[in-house]
Please model this.
Amino acid sequence: MKLSYYPGCSLHGTAKEYDESTRAVCYQLGIELIELEDWNCCGASSAHSTDEFLSNALPERNLKIAANTGLDLLVPCAACYSRMMTAGKENPSLKPTVKIRNLPELLREEDNFNRIREQVKTPLEGLKIACYYGCLLTRPPKLTEVKDYENPQTMDDLVSILDGETVSWPYKTECCGGSLAITHTDIVKRLTRRIIEMAMEAEADCLVTACPMCQANLDTRQDETSRDEGKEYNLPIFYITELIGLAIDGKKSGRWWKRHFVDPMPLLNSKGLI
Amino acid sequence: MKRHLTNHSLDALVARIGKTDVLACYQCKKCSAGCPVSPDMDILPHQVIRMIQFGMKERLLNSKTIWLCASCETCTARCPNDVDLAKIMDVLRQMATNSGEPLGDSRVPFFHSAFLSSIRRRGRIYELGMIAKYKLKNREFKKDIKLGIMMFLKGKLKLLSSKIKGKKEIKDIFSQVKKGVIG
Model:
């Protein structure tokens, strides 16, 4: 399988380990990724909050480049995925030629799913995982065409074939406030604390996501929240590709953990996974 | 959708740009109940719709609410009448930005402006430059400095910016946006 790959700005910066683990997992599964040539920023929430034309024109440039490759377009960042899907819908002439794919859905496809199952070398036995989907992978359902948008299952299914234990919890699709991370930190701290507390209450050892904004937001504020609340918050936040990568080929994973704020190594060590 | 009082009324304008029927709302308040930031808002999501119906443009465009909305799409996903409130928030933010009037929040509009000017110059986001610009404008130098240093040490922030080859195409796109909207 060959795909065009749109990393977006986050995967080239703050979400480097998402880029690295996505490439590693796709390589293992025989999915060839060809980075979209000279891609530009999708405009994110700033463009759609400011100007209607801009919010479509920026992702459209990428979709036009993708259309020329004749390949489907993989967009691992949930926010970029949402902007690309929206622009594709607004400009139907682009849509039939470019199929836009997000990562959990791609990996959940029958062929890839079976290949992951066959390749598991280090089963994630004993690891209790809260699957966190956030907002834009599933919403709005009219755009994403996700039917179970209040209780999505793609990552839960993936974690299950890695032999990890998924927890049942109600905040799978609650917003972490990612778009306010820099501007209204007080609100964001309240939202991320609620999500982490709920995962802990469900007795999860860690949380897994497929969005660079969610990961950064949930991972980087725990230290500060511990100080504010006088209580320890120490829940590792993984990307789904990091857990798959760990299970199918543990060798490369070491450098991903170093990029995390909440160090996942003590947890993985205690479960005998590294 | 020909239920509007006049073509120029606020509900007609919002409906046209947002492609959603504001008059379909029957005030069930599901949007406000599920909104993660409603505790911080000055106008609740269901009230926003009602105020659009009443044509209370100024009050809406001056509100904090439109800038605190995190675009999480929960309201849109749950509305029983298919009112696309997340999109309406976009339309209101766009109208407020274009109005040239004082805004109900300074941080978020500053952030968008810094973010977009980074794209205009390079085609992609240069995080360090963008955040520095935002902090300069907003006089928030100390906040999150430790976080920034940690990010850098973990290889997550680049010191140097990179530009794309198609800068001219990006410039052309931005030239079609009204002047003064992006700082």
